[in-house]
Amino acid sequence: MASRGVRFLMTYAMTNDASRPTIRILGTHGIPAAYGGFETAAENVAIYLRDRGWRVVVYCQAAGSGEIREDRWNGIERVTIFVSRDGWLGTSAFDWMSIRHALKFRDPCLTFGYNTAVFNILQRVLRVPNVINMDGIEWSRARWGKFRQAILYANERVACVIGDHLIADHPCIEQHLRQRVSPQKITTITYGAHEVTDALADVPRRLGLVPGRYLTLICRPISENSILELVQAFSARRRHHRLLVLGDYTPESDPYHRAVLEAASDEVMFPGAIYAPADVAALRFHSLGYLHGHTVGGTNPSLVEALAAGNPVIAHDNPYNRWVAQDAAIYFHSTLTADDRITELLGSAALRQRLSTASRTRHRSEFTWEHVAGQYESVLAPYVNASHRPPVPERKPA
Predict the structure, then answer these.
(1) Is the bond preceding 129 in cis, omega lying within 30 degrees of 0?
(2) Residue 327: pLDDT over 60
(3) Dihedral angle of Cα 361, 364, 366, 372, to the nearest 10 degrees
(4) Among residues 57, 73, 174, 299, which is most buried (max CB within 10 A)?
(5) How are strands ordered across the β-sheet holding 242-246?
């Protein structure tokens, strides 16, 4: 039995939580982030709101079976739901169970992604506010196949109808959504990244890399990210630099992965996937530049992180990348032009310095977490009972 003092503290905590604005974050694998852009966004938005006096509850997916587990991480509540299935079926089961659990409390929700938006109809029916981050135009990605594309397309249409407010991560995504709903229902909020101004050189050295003598290419190994074209371009001639390509490549089962590996010269490295954020930040910081081949989607977190590290960027020429990187990048549209851009970047210290300065300027103007999470708070605040909102504590400099 709990002591009188412990019971008092528990009662105080419950009362204190009840008086704070509450948001429940759904649709990600959870925090701390160890998976992708949605998880990183959820973590940083949650931390910002926590510091602003909010009560934040984040739903987390875990492999296996067991009862729902509730705990706290850095002052943020976590609800961990165990799912035994992998892939889409596992994610769908997790989303369904998360929504059902969240609806017990009727708190406003922030949902990342629309892949299972049909389940969010429950929030609409029960009049529980739900702000949905609409991600990119996922149904347009050929890698899903016709059946999954059809499911995603249908869920996007459902999300547009039942979401109380929609978040687009890029102006091009907002323009797309405007074909579905009124502009007043959409707010463009990008992804963020923490600025990297220093990092241990031991991280690249452990991989056999010389700081300042290599380029990075960090993305999911799929054809729409132009990896084959970039590897072919880099391997077209001796560079006297290395190209570090991060990601899980399985040539024995994936023909595209096999083609990428076969196209690579001996100056290209494939160490596999590296998930530790500090290690990835160090590899970016000490690289001479970043290659970004994404051709679809909205604001890509990997490109934002390159800007935050002050990387000169060579990016595929499309409206998504043009808006994000602006004058912090030089652009390519084919293997031939990528070869030219790589040669240009490696051969000019002045160009690298100009692009690096532009990267940091662009990041500070649009992609800091303070700016991004502050926009989330502005969107979410109207859905929380203002009478429960305590005075906002003064933020102290880091």
Answers:
(1) no
(2) yes
(3) 170
(4) 299
(5) 268-272, 242-246, 214-218, 289-292, 313-316, 329-332
